[in-house]
Structure formats: C-alpha cells, structure tokens
UniProtKB/TrEMBL annotation:
GO terms for biological process: DNA damage response; fatty acid metabolic process. It holds the Pfam family 2OG-FeII_Oxy_2. This is Fe2OG dioxygenase domain-containing protein. It comes from Microthlaspi erraticum. GO terms for cellular component: mitochondrial matrix. The lineage of its organism: Eukaryota, Viridiplantae, Streptophyta, Embryophyta, Tracheophyta.
Length: 226
C-alpha cells in the first residue's frame, strides 16, 4: 500500500471494512458513495452540497491519479490548471457529476448547464498545506455559470459572504473529503467564497477546531465562448 492509501486508511479505515462492494457493483463502478444525498445550503440560492459524493475507495483512487500527474513534487507548486482536453480521471469525474446530478429529482444544477457540451473544460487542482487557503473571491467571469468543487483529504470550512454590500450573514459550509459542491446562479455570481486556514482563520466546525492536514481540491468549470 502506498503512503497515500495508508494515510486514507488511517483516517477513514479500510474501504473494505464492513462494506460488501460485491453486492453493489454498479455503485462501486460509478464511485458513488453510500448515499448521494444533496443538501441545499439555505440562504444561498444555487449552492448545493453532496457530502458523500465519492466513496473512500474512489477518493483514494482519485488522489493517486492526481499525485501520479507529478504536479506537486516541488513544494513551491501548489496549483495545476488544464484547459480543453482534461486528464481521463477528470473527464470521469465530470461524467460522474453529470450522472449524479441527473439521477436526483432536484434542480441541483439548471438543465441548460447540466446538458451543455462539454459540461466542463477547465480544471484546477489546488494543493493546500495546513495554514493555506484562498482569499474571498467570485470566480472570474470568463467562466460560465455552474462550478463544481470536489474536496480530498483534510476537511475545511468554506465561507460564503455577499459580493455586494447587502444585509446577509456569512454562511459557512464544511467541505469534507469526498464531498462535492455545486455553485450556480446567485451562489456563483452574488456570493464570494473563501477558505481561511491561517491561525486567525475560521476553521472551526460545531465548536471544534479542525485538525488541518493537506487538502486537495478539484475545481471544474467551463470557459465562456470567445
Ligand atoms: O479549493 C477550493 O475549494 C476552492 C478553489 C476556488 O475557489 C477556485 O479555484 O476558484
Ligand atoms: Fe473559486
């Protein structure tokens, strides 16, 4: 077992523990977690969270595929970007997002976004060491509506705050490993999002300080046509 798999096993237990994947081959092939429950983040239209998007096994496979790309061998490099043809693991992830969204009877993503071709053609993988995060921002307008973020490894709190000075409270969302968030409409254009993992940050969830480790995120977007 390589270091990453060992690390995941230590954190989450063996993926085969108590799970008989043979009974549910379809789910496992698709990499769908135990349940694909979607939560609408109240007070932010267009923000949806699926905590159990990826099974432990799929998280481990995805992490290995990302690390195999060799993007993060130098400590100074913590971000990789790809446009157009995405690596096969990212295309599979995009397909899985589409299937998962399609299979629920909820408007998790507006149909015109869900069925555009391709769903995503831009990929960013960020690797954050403990203490590192991302400043409050609205994603650039050169990207279309409909943004997906998949989280791996350390959980973190992502804070949403209104982009314009309006009377609305900030909203914290816990991005646990294996989770997927989708932002569209107001969530994408009218709210900023940030992750502050500095000492004076906000990595507290349900009263407990989050034990920070490396966090890897995969952001999928679609470029606007020129
Ligand atoms: O790492 C994340 O979860 C967020 C990344 C992000 O917001 C971005 O790249 O625009
Ligand atoms: Fe962003």
């Amino acid at each position: 077992m390589d270091d990453e798999a060992e690390h995941l096993k230590a954190a989450f237990g063996d993926s085969s523990d108590g799970e008989d994947f043979a009974d549910r081959p379809e789910k496992e092939t698709l990499g769908i977690g135990d349940s694909t429950v979607w939560e609408r983040v109240e007070s932010i239209n267009g923000l949806w969270l699926c905590r159990s998007f990826l099974s432990i096994h799929h998280q481990s496979e995805l992490l290995s595929a990302i690390l195999k790309e060799g993007w993060f061998v130098e400590e100074s490099i913590n971000q990789a970007m790809r446009f157009g043809d995405l690596p096969s693991w990212a295309t599979k992830l995009s397909d899985l997002i589409q299937e998962t969204v399609e299979s629920v009877d909820l408007s998790v993503l507006p149909a015109d976004l869900l069925w555009r071709e391709p769903l995503f053609d831009q990929l960013i993988v960020n690797s954050y060491q403990p203490g590192e995060g991302i400043c409050a921002h609205v994603d650039l307008l050169r990207f279309e509506d409909g943004i997906a973020i998949v989280s791996l490894e350390s959980p973190c709190v992502m804070r949403f705050s209104p982009a314009e000075a309006v009377e609305a409270e900030d909203v914290d969302v816990l991005l646990s490993p294996g989770s997927l968030i989708l932002m569209s409409g107001e969530a994408r254009y009218q709210w900023k999002h940030e992750i502050n993992r500095k000492e004076n940050g906000f990595q507290v969830w349900e009263g407990e300080e989050i034990d920070q480790k490396r966090r890897i995120s995969i952001t999928l977007r679609k470029l606007c046509q020129a």
